[in-house]
Fold:
Amino acid sequence: MEKMGKIEIARQIKIFDTTLRDGEQSPGCSMNGPEKLEVAKQLERLGVDIIEAGFPASSPGDLESVKAIAGVVKNSAVAGLCRSLEKDIDAAWQALSQAASPRIHVFLATSPIHMQYKLKMTPDQVLEQAVAAVKYAKKYCSDVEFSAEDAFRSDPDFVCAVFGAVIAAGATTVNAPDTVGYAMPEEFGAFIRRLKEHTSGVEKAALSTHVHNDLGLGVASSLAAIAAGADQIECTINGIGERAGNASLEEIVMALRVRKDYWKADTRIDTTQIYPTSRLVAQVTGVKVQPNKAIVGENAFAHEAGIHQHGVLANRETYEIMTPESIGLQKNQMVLGKHSGKHALEDRLKQLGVTVTVQDLERIFVEFKLLADKKKTVRDRDIEVLARGVAVSAPETWSLDHWAVSSSSALGATGAIQLRYKDGSLHKAVVLAAGPIDAVFSVIDAIIGKEITLETFDIGAVTEGEDALGETNVKIKHGDRIWRGHGISTDIVESAIKAYIAAINAMEWDLSRSA
Structure:
């Protein structure tokens, strides 16, 4: 029994993070290979027990991403999801075989509606296939998890029977999801308790939950499951995931940590890595965190009302039940500007929880100096976004050499851009268009010679003030595939150009790998 302060911690809850699988497959959250690898490294620093790195059988690209993550991550188990099919399990093992701690995660639906309309199988057939899948996976891997998709809307006795059978077949974890977020927390807690009490051999396996947030109850139901005896919680950073998302990792972890007096349970998460991880996931997916989001929202530790400010200044505990430092958010900011050196920048990056290579630091420092020449002070958010934009990107097939744009209400816009190809050659074009953004994007299309559709375009200010750093996120489509790009600059047109080129580089890199 571990002790935390004067409070005895009776249970250690495992955190199974599925940001790179369930989170990444949700609309608008896809990541390329380098981005997934960067997030996986950060999840390892965060201290998650299991990283579900992807669905290897879904595409060659996903298989390669899972394989790359499995080859790098050492301190967390790496899981690959697969249907209860031998070909899926083969693909999962192909991706996971070099992992320090591999886990094969098989799933099969158990609810009447799924069995009848999706699987077109009888309960007996489902049980038989579940057992066969676990036995087949067990030939490859000692750590096998079985998930009963849509478990909460299933017959509880049937779930108990399936879990008992797959545990007997070798499953080391059994997962009971509320796949559509239908349960009320008390109901879900009672459901987990019933599985715990009536599943044969349940003491030989960890009991896990995976709750979606369709009714906004993902975290509440997950905590109810812990109260009922669940050993593992499946969740995502920032709560991203299919439809309304998944239970939020940071909210579950901090609920256990802040109220350890109530739960007598904890995780091995390094909570000081929560904020950096949240920011990284928001950056690479382009999905912003709502300002009032618990734990990691911009307003989570902000106090504007006078009475709140007075209380916090007198004693932080008047309005803060946790400290910003406890999640890795620095309260005091070191001001950086054009006279700052590389060591100061590197130190600030470390304080922000951003780990970069020597090569990336050189590139970030160059961009930092350019930005510092345009701004009086460079804020934490500027540095954070700058670092993510440099460190998490596809190899540069094209880079921006220089650009110019002119625009008027009467004559439209003219865009002129010169790009540098990876072989060093320069390519220039001039285009007339309706507006400045249309002009520069059309010029780039003309230079690269590919038919591209702009799917989404989102621009905003990262920081406040007239010299705010502009942040642009775009999604482009070529053929039937979509790529995302991110760009930052104090000039909004330049940030748009950088984002568009970043998306094109991601496209070129993916296409070159599949050629």
